[in-house]
Structures are given as C-alpha cells and as structure tokens.
Specification:
With 367 residues, the protein is α/β, with parallel strands linked by helices. It is built from ten helices and 19 strands. The protein folds into two domains: 145 residues, 3-Layer(bba) Sandwich (Glucose Oxidase, domain 1), CATH 3.50.30.20; 208 residues, Class I glutamine amidotransferase (GATase) domain (Rossmann fold, 3-Layer(aba) Sandwich).
Length: 367
Amino acid sequence: MIKARLVFEDGTVFYGNVFAMADDRYGEVIFNTALSGYQEVLTDPSYSGQIVLMTYPLIGSYGINEQDIESGSVFLRAFLVKEYINFPSNWRSKKSLKKYLEENNILGVEGFDTRAITRFIRDKGSQKALLTTSEEDISVLIQKVASSQGMKGQNLVQHVTCSEQYDWEKPQEEEFRVAVIDCGVKYNILRQMTTNHCFCTVFPAGTSAEDILSGKFDGVFISNGPGDPEPVNNVVQTIKALIGKIPVFGICLGNQLLALALGGRTFKLAFGHHGANHPVKNLETGKVEITSQNHGFGVDLESLSMDDVEVTHINLNDNTVEGFKHKKYPAFSVQYHPEAAPGPNDSRYLFKNFIDLMRQHRKKKIY
C-alpha cells in the first residue's frame, strides 16, 4: 500500500493511502458535503484547480456509469475520501472509481480523517496544498506548496471552455434558441434547457457580443465555471455589450460575471460552498430552497447598485448573495445550481423563469 501525505501551506500534514495512482498534485483543498453524486462532482469543470474531499465516508459503492457525466473530462486535481469501496454494486456500473480515476490520471487517496480535514478548512479557510507520495522532508514539501500558484487571480475558464462552437441536442419541440457562453458548462444545464424546448448553441468563452447577436438568439445563458471571476474579463466585456439587448441568465460563475458586468465586485469566500444541502431563501416568494452549490467566490452585496439591481436570493448559512435581477433589463442570475446533478430539484423553476423572460422579450421584438 502506497502512503500519501496532504501538506498544507501552513505546514499542517494529513496522512492517507493511495487507491488510484497518479502523479503528485498541487491545488486548493475544498470539501463537498453531498451524500452521493461523486461521478458528477468528478466531471464538473467548476472543480478545475482543486483537490476535492468528500465528507460522506464511503465512496465508490456504485461505481462509474455512462450516463451521469457532466462534461467531456475530469478537471479536478485529486480526490480524497475516508474509505474507498472497490466492489461497486449498481446495475448501471461499467467500471470502478479506481479505474476511472487512473484512466484520467487523477490521484485518489483514502484513509484520511476527512472530518478533521473538513474542520481544519472551516477553521483556517481554504489553502494551497500538495498531495504527494514523495518521501522528501516535510520542510521541502512545504516550500514547494508555498511556491505553487493559488486560486485567486487565475483565469481557469480558458482551460475548460470549448475550443469551437457546437450545437447541443435539438429538442423535439423547439421554441427558443439560446446562446450558451461556455465557462465550464455542465451537461445537465444543457439537458434542462432541452427539456424546456430550447435549442442551445454553445460558444467558447472568448466569443464576442457581436457574434452572438448576429445569430438572432432568443436569449443568452452564462454558464458555471471554475476559479476567480475577475480575470475572466473577456466574458465580462461580452456580457456588458449584451445587457439590454437580449435576455441574460447566469448560473454560478455566470452570476459573478454578470455582477462584474454591472459594476459590482466579487470576493473569495473563506472555504466556499460545495455540496447539495445549502439552504437558500427566495426573497420574492419567501420560500426556502435546498440547493446544490459549488463555488469559492461570492458577489459583494455592497458593490451592487440597488437603483439598478434587486437581490432575489440569499444564503441562509452566511447571508451571502445567491441571486439577483436587473430592475430595467431582462437579466438575472443565481449563485447556485438549479440543474442539480447531484442535488435536489427545488430550483428548476428558474429555467421556466428564463423561458418566460425570453417569451416576453420576443413579443417586444427587440434585437
């Protein structure tokens, strides 16, 4: 059994055993509180640059199937669990988690005290770390972590966006055409759009507003994605040029980019929101939704102009902004994932809200 060490930049070290072999990995360590859905987590582009720890103790029990993927690759740096289950039992399973991780060159380590690591991150905040099988002295490893690149200031979207535009699956009954700005879009967002009679064309993150508007789309969707939103200035400039001309809907990173386009600011959360059990209050209805979330940055409420923007959703754990809409233009966004995958479906009404917005805008015939 190969030993591994998780070395944080402050010198704290945790010990585990490798169950899926790959090269050493640097990254920001975050914890995810979902009870299931590890395959969706592995294939979510929003985890690019991160080492992901699952708080649920038993991982691997249902293996890997061919349906529950959220992108064309695995983007996280490494995967940490309490106990790996190497005998999957599920009728859809095609391979073990171990095999899947090794096929994608992802280091998987079990045997960690995941509860202790989670409490450490909650107390100290997210940090850079190194997951390694090296036997080098700890002082050498700490020095390596210190010299590695952190999450803030990195434009990770450029590593996960598509290289060229493509059309997603055509719905049986097409009602609307939607341009998707791909900052790391999850497939289930596109599936939900298709279910709601939208034919999606997915564009690389660097696409200009002019190229999108020339397509005569009914609406624009700004996708989820990884990392710090502030360096993704090309998408911010595109959104600025689209606001007021076409309905805009953003999810997760799309929420942050829309805020930046409207003159707001973003900030790094202490340890982010990652999991499928986050309570969010809809301020328009008074209802509480249990939501799926995955982000390390938030929108600065004080930076938004209340003359132009109305906050529609707040997080009941820390009161951060979870959604807002423009008072004049057809534009709104949420910080969480209404498409879930994994997670609850409390918030799927937001896709219907986008449909209604496009329908109203179409009647005005403004393009």
